[in-house]
Amino acid sequence: MNVPTRRLARAAASATITPLQWRLASSSRQAVKTPPAQVPSPRVTKSYRPTQKPGTSSNASSPPPPPPPPKADTLLDIWRRAWLPLTGASVLAGFLGFYIFGTTAASLRSSPCSSSSSSSSSSCEHATPTGRPPALSGDNAEQFDKELNLPEWWMGITKLRKRLATHARGNVLELAMGSGRNLEYYNWEPLSTAVEAARTGKIPPPKIPQGITSFTGLDISVDMLDVSRKSLAKSVPPMSSSAPIVKASSMADHTGGQLSFLDGHVRLVNLDAHHPLPPPAHTDKYDTIIQTFGLCSVSDPVAVLSNLANVVRPDTGRIVLLEHGKGYYGLVNGLLDKNAGKHFAKYGCWWNRDIEAIVEDAVSKTPGLEVVKLERPNITQMGTLVWIELKMAAEAKTA
């Protein structure tokens, strides 16, 4: 075989393709010719549109529907917004009504004095030298004391008595002490120390303690002093054994008699406050003078204040008074004026006096007497309660 023939045979052999090779070649051609699979585009969700109600317009430029009308307030809604002012107004109205009711009820008894005019009321005031009526005697004095417990509590007077008692220190004089309603609130601890020092001959410390070292209680009513004597026995520890044996009859002559306990450290004196007042038993002046509701029960309150100024220690001594009289409002003052005569006949007290004016008059007429404090502490009583603190100037000379 020549060369050309061999070449043709070799070419024919090389051109021969098996079936397997043909399938592989076809697969390769398809892999080359088949385009790549396309990734599906993300699905776009349509925005939500509310379904329109029948009869409504689909125009976007139309105004929104009006808001619904406001819901009417219920009583509970009104109470939640205004409970504080409503409660305050109710309480104030209740106090005012209760005060007016109590003021009227306290004056049911008829009066021998007419209080229809200022002149007749003034003349009636001075018809009696003091405001202790005969009705407040004997067993009535003790019953009268018990009946005051509830009224004084709701009027806030009990709280003021406790506050007043904290001012009592050193040698104390309580004027118009009545049944002794302040005794249980005093600090009696220094009294025991002072009594023991007097018995053993020890010299007491020069500084005035925060409490009572000696006590003098004064009132014009023997029966009231007998009630206070029993209160002293309960309130003062050193007196528990000695007080019950003393009888009220020892002061029944109304001439300035007195009961003396614990070597003169405790005394009860039967005396009219218009007369000169006794000094303490162991010194010359009182460190504290206390009086509750006394200026309403004397015929000349200015003279009584001058008497107190004569026996209080200058500069450091204090006169502390809790009084009642005219208040802030004309309605209340008019009611007090209208029933003043009846109230005096029943309780021996002129409750319509102008306490602030009385104090100013006493200061102007008593050299050295000064006002330290004057306030009306209980607003619920419409200004009818008055707290006064007085002192004597250091350089003042008393009679």
Offer a quick outline of the entry.
This is Methyltransferase type 11 domain-containing protein. Keywords: Membrane, Transmembrane, Transmembrane helix. With 399 residues, the protein is of the alpha/beta class.
Strand elements, count = 8
Reading off the top of the CATH hierarchy, the class of the domain at 131-336 and 345-392 is best stated as: Alpha Beta
- The separation of the N and C termini measures 178 Å
Relative strand content = 5-15%
The secondary-structure class comes to alpha/beta
Question: How is the largest sheet built, in terms of strand order?
Answer: 3-4-2-1-5-6-8-7
Q: Could you tell me the radius of gyration in angstroms?
A: 49 Å
Q: What is the level-2 CATH architecture name of the domain at 131-336 and 345-392?
A: 3-Layer(aba) Sandwich
In terms of per-residue confidence, which ranges show pLDDT below 50 for 5 or more consecutive residues?
107-123, 243-250
Report mean pLDDT, rounded to a whole number: 77
Number of helices: 13
- CATH fold topology of the domain at 131-336 and 345-392: Rossmann fold
Helix content: 25-40%
Region (Disordered): 24-73, 111-140
Keywords: Membrane, Transmembrane, Transmembrane helix
Biased composition (Pro residues): 62-71
Transmembrane segments: 82-102
